[in-house]
Amino acid sequence: MRSLVIEDEPQIGAYIIRLLGQLHGVVDLVGSIADARQALDNFKYDLAIVDRMLPDGDALEVVTALSQSPERPAIIMLTSKDTKEDVVDGLNGGADDYLGKPFEPQELLARVRAVLRRPRLLAPAVLSLGNVELHLGSNEVVVADRKILLRRREALILGALLMRRDRVITRAALIEEIYGFDDEIESNTLEAQVSRLRKKLAAFGGDVEIRSMRGIGYILRLATPR
């Protein structure tokens, strides 16, 4: 899952990112309508959490445009502009939900789960193949009945591969799925993280293999018995 947070207060934005980390996936943060448009031009999002009053205008125009997109994300407006009239304008303008500030973190997460549930975008709690089970949100993987806590990027890589089990995911698609657009990625970063993940799964007796497809990407499948 990829989420976009449009929020011009850095501390609030960072806090929302930490909350959304419980749902597994990548979160991008922007602080203006202009930056939001640029992000939306470059990435497809499953969820957008939108502050209304931004330095360059009312983000309701972004919400309305998003709601009319063929691949619209689930949209929650999270703003201090929360009179009854504001809420009506936001919902009529295309938001799926509207929450005023200050907000309770668990309420925001509950509303996120609810709006994602409508189009069935929320990933299952557990992804599995063979004797490997990834518990989303906790970054915990069970391999042959033994629990391992993966690094966040390793869990995202494994989740992306499990979602496409027995299918190739290109290197470019994997990078887009697990890194934010402002992450600095060196040429061998992804390969190093895949290598660490592969070694951890093998060390604990995982019966799956991550195969590198030279010049293309990766594929996760059950290991061939020796």
- Widest β-sheet, arrangement of strands: 2-1-3-6-7
Specify the overall morphology.
elongated
The CATH class of the largest domain is Alpha Beta
Unreliable spans are: none
Helical amount: 25-40%
CATH superfamily (homologous) name of the largest domain: Response regulator
Name the CATH architecture of the largest domain: 3-Layer(aba) Sandwich
Number of helices: 8
The topology string of helices and strands comes to EHEHEEEHEHEHEEEEHEHHEE
- Under CATH, the topology of the largest domain is which? Rossmann fold
Largest sheet: 5 strands, parallel
Properties at a glance:
226 residues, alpha/beta, Rossmann fold, Arc Repressor Mutant, subunit A, 2 domains, five-stranded parallel sheet, four-stranded antiparallel sheet, 14 strands, elongated, WalR-like, phosphorelay response regulator activity, DNA-binding
